[in-house]
Write a structure and sequence with these properties.
This protein has about 170 residues and is an all-alpha fold. It folds into 2 domains: about 1-90, Orthogonal Bundle (Rna Polymerase Sigma Factor, Chain: A), CATH 1.10.1740; about 105-170, Winged helix-like DNA-binding domain superfamily/Winged helix DNA-binding domain (Arc Repressor Mutant, subunit A). It contains 9 helices and no strands. Helix 1 (about 5-25) packs antiparallel against helix 6 (about 120-130).
Length: about 170
C-alpha cells in the first residue's frame, strides 16, 4: 500500500478530473464548480480519517463527487418543484444564456448528446471521460464487475458517437 500524499498535492493532481466528472454529469459550469468545490471540502474534512493512498485517491474523490452531483440534482429538482408551484420559470433565461455562451460549440454538442442517453450511460461516460476512472473503479462505483463496466461503458460511448449531431461534430 502506497503512502498518502499531502492534501494540497491531491487537490493539484485531481481537481481537473473531479471538475470534468461534475461537468459531464451536470452539464452546467457553475453547478460543476459548486459540486467540485463541495467534493474537495468533504474530502479535506475526512482525508486523515480515510487516508486514501496514491493509487486509490482519485477513485475516492470521484466517489465523493458522484454523491455531491446526486445531492445537487436533488436540490435542483426540489427548487424546480417550488418554482412550478409558484408559477415561475424554473430556469432563468440569463443563466441559460451565460451557460451556452460560456461553453465551446463542441462541448455543447457532446453534452447535448449525453442528455439523450439513459442515466446509467450518462454516469458511465462521466466516470470514464469526466473522472478518468479505470473500468475496475467504474465497476466498483456502479456495483458491477470490471468486464461488465468495460462493456457497458463502450456501449454507452458507441451510442453517443452514433448520434448524428455528435458524429457530425467530430
Amino acid at each position: 500500500m502506497a503512502e498518502a500524499l499531502p492534501f494540497e498535492e491531491v487537490y493539484r493532481r485531481h481537481a481537473d478530473d473531479v471538475y470534468r466528472f461534475c461537468l459531464f454529469q451536470l452539464r452546467d459550469r457553475a453547478a460543476a464548480e459548486d459540486a467540485a468545490s463541495t467534493t474537495f471540502l468533504s474530502a479535506y474534512t475526512s482525508y486523515e480519517r480515510a487516508s486514501p493512498d496514491v493509487d486509490t485517491v482519485r477513485y475516492w474523490l470521484i466517489h465523493i463527487a458522484k454523491h455531491k452531483v446526486i445531492d445537487h440534482k436533488r436540490r435542483a429538482q426540489r427548487w424546480r418543484q417550488v418554482m412550478i408551484t409558484l408559477h415561475r420559470d424554473s430556469k432563468p433565461a440569463v443563466q441559460e444564456v451565460e451557460t451556452q455562451v460560456g461553453m465551446n460549440e463542441h462541448l455543447r454538442v457532446v453534452l447535448k448528446g449525453i442528455e439523450s442517453l439513459s442515466k446509467r450511460d450518462q454516469l458511465l461516460i462521466g466516470l470514464r471521460c469526466g473522472g478518468g476512472l479505470s473500468f475496475e473503479e467504474i465497476g466498483k462505483i456502479v456495483g458491477t464487475s470490471t468486464k461488465t463496466a468495460t462493456t457497458a461503458t463502450h456501449r454507452a460511448m458507441k451510442k453517443l458517437r452514433s448520434q448524428p449531431e455528435v458524429a457530425a461534430d467530430e
